[in-house]
Amino acid sequence: MSKFQFKKFVVNQDRCAMKIGTDGVLLGAWAPITNNPFSILDIGAGTGVIALMLAQRTFAEQIDALEIDEEAYEQAMDNFENSPWSDRLFCFHAGLDEFVEEPEDEYDLIVSNPPFYSEDYKTESDQRDLARFQDALPFEDLIEAADLLLSENGIFAVIIPFKEEQKFLALAKEMELYPIKITHVKGTPTTEIKRSLLAFSRNEITDFPIDELTIEIARHVYTPEYIEMTKEFYLKL
């Protein structure tokens, strides 16, 4: 599907190796905006869908995205320009290491759906591999960048494999970034937890919410919680 129609915007994805998936939409809908962010950064923008969702959800005046792959970067820019929020969205064509060398801004919300397949095999497509494999963006680099770029009361939110959660929490703690909300995601009531949605801040709190989200009861029969979370975006919900 080269085009994905949401309620208030369209995402073209014909040039992007990583197509729109549930992970990105989940993060875009879930990321806490309780601090009323003025500035937002999406690390590893892909099609730009997460930044677009946050443009719809917030009044942030500065929404920056970062994308290393040239085709994906051009696609994200086009999607931004064709959206109702083109004046607030901007994509940088750069790697995270370049971007943090001379940070000009701090961000009130930083989000990332990082590439996280650390298995040994590679596919035939280099572009897809770059989008899929963890060597494109190690967790350590991502967390260091968040620490560097996050404003004093900022929130850092990611979606990662559940099996990586403890490692990610430990790395974040080393950088003095502490969880404020965790949601475990299951595909159906009977399947294992597959993903972790994690939100961090610089302020350590002992009693933060940990909950669980199940996406489907049966094929294309979505749970009330998932519908509630995504109904502002998906056309058919």
Give a brief description.
The chain is an alpha/beta fold. It has helices at residues 22-30, 49-57, 70-81, 96-101, 126-132, 139-149, 165-174, 224-230; strands spanning 3-5, 10-12, 39-43, 62-67, 89-93, 107-112, 150-161, 178-186, 193-201, 210-214, 216-218, 221-222. The chain contains eight helices and twelve strands.
Kindly list the characteristics that best describe this protein.
eight-stranded mixed beta sheet; alpha/beta; Rossmann fold; two-stranded antiparallel sheet; 237 residues
Description:
- The protein is an alpha/beta fold and 237 residues long.
- It has one domain (3-231): Rossmann fold (3-Layer(aba) Sandwich), CATH 3.40.50.
- It has eight helices and twelve strands.
- It has helices at 22-30, 49-57, 70-81, 96-101, 126-132, 139-149, 165-174, 224-230; strands at residues 3-5, 10-12, 39-43, 62-67, 89-93, 107-112, 150-161, 178-186, 193-201, 210-214, 216-218, 221-222.
- Strands 5-4-3-6-7-9-8-10 form an eight-stranded mixed beta sheet. Strands 1-2 form a two-stranded antiparallel sheet.
- Helix 1 packs parallel to helix 2 (49-57).
- The mean pLDDT is 90.
